[in-house]
Design goal:
Layout: H1 3-23, E1 31-34, H2 36-39, H3 45-57, E2 67-69, E3 75-78, E4 84-86, H4 95-104, E5 108-114, H5 130-140, E6 144-148, H6 156-171, E7 178-181, E8 200-202, H7 222-229, E9 241-243, H8 268-280, E10 285-287, H9 296-302, H10 305-311, E11 320-324, E12 328-334, E13 340-346, E14 352-357, E15 368-371, E16 376-377, E17 384-389, E18 394-400
Helix pairs in contact: 3-4, 5-6, 8-9, 8-10
Length: 401
Amino acid sequence: MSKKVFILFCLLFVFVESFSQKHSMVQLPPMGWMSWNYYADNLNEKNIREIADAMVASGLSDVGYKYIFMDDGWQGGRNNRNEMIPDPKKFPSGIKALADYVHSKGLRLGIYSDAAQFTCAGYTASLGFEEQDARTFASWGIDYLKYDYCGAPADSATAKIRYKKMADALRNSGREIVFGICEWGGRQPWKWGAQAGGQLWRTTGDVRDKWKDVTNSGGWGILDIIDLNKHLDAYAGGGHWNDMDMLVVGLNGKKGPSGDLGGTGCSYTEYQTQMSLWCMMCSPLALSNDIRSMDEPTKRILLNKEVIALNQDSLGLQCQLMSSNGSFEVFLKKLAGGDYALAILNRSDKSQEMNMNFQNIGLKGKFRIRDLWKHEKLDAASNRWKGTVEPHETKVFRLSR
C-alpha cells in the first residue's frame, strides 16, 4: 500500500467513525425514569425536580440512570404562533427552566408527543407540526422524544411516513434528540424503525404490574413481554433497541395506569426477573416507581451494577434463547472481552432443580461462574451449573474463561 493510499484510508476511517458517533446517539440502551405509571397525566415541574434530586441522592444516576422521561400530560396547547406550550399551572417556570435544572444535575430530559392530532390522554399532539415542534423541543434543551401513536391509522405504511417525518424534523432541529417510536409493536417496528429514524421502538403494548395475563384481560404482564421480545434478538444492536416498556419494579400494586387490567403487583422475585431479562435483552431501562422512597428490596434490584453492566455492555447484543422445555428457559448473551451472561428462567409455579451442561448451549471448556444476584463466585471453574431455581425466578451468571 502506497503512502498516499494509506493516508486516504486513514482519513476515510476517521470520517466513518465521526459519522457513526454523530448519528448514533444511543450506542447503549437509555436508562432513566418515566412519569406515566406513577403520575399518569398529573405530572408537574415540582414532581420532576424532586425526581431529579432523588436520581442523584439515591445513587441511581451513578449506576447509569440519566434520563427523566416526561410522558403525556405536560402540554398546554399552542400559542398564537402555533408553538407548543406547557400547561402553565403544571409548569409555571416553563420547560426550558426545567431542562436547565435537570441538566445541572448531570441528567437529561425527555418529553412526549403523538403522531396524530391528540395524544393518548387527549392533549395537543404533533401531526402537521413536526418541524415546528422539533424546533421547540430543541430550543428547550430536550434530549429525548417518546412519540406515541394513539389516534393514528392501523396500517404500517402510514406509521413509517409519520415516524420518519418527525425523525427528519428532529435531525433538522439543531440538537441531538433521541427518538423513541411507540406504536406498541402491532406494525412490527423492529423491521423498519431504524430506517424510519428511530433509535428504539416499543415491541409490545403497555406493561402492567403483574406477572402474566392469566384472565385474558388484555394487559401485558412481565412474562407476556418476555415471550414476545425473546424472539427479536436479530433486530437489536448498537444504537437501535427493542423497547420492552417500563420497569414496574417497586410499584407494588399501585393504582393507576400500571394497575389497570389486572395489575395488582408482583413479588420481588418476579420484579428481579423483570430486571434480569430487560438487562439481558438490552431493553431501555425506564423506572416508573417512586424513587424518592424506595424500600431495600427495590434498591437491591434497581441498583445492581453487575446486572446493569449486562444491559450496558459495549457489544450491545440482545441475548438469545438457547433452550426451552416449558418450565426452564435458558438465555445466553455474548459480552465484550469474551465473557458470557447466562440467564435461567423458571416459568413454572414450582421450585425446579437444574443440572445444566454448558456444552449443551454451545459453550466448550470450563468457566469461572459468578452469581450476579448473590454477588458470589463459585469455588472452581466448571462446565456446568447445578442448583434450585424458585418459581418465576431468573438466575443470572457471568461466565469467564
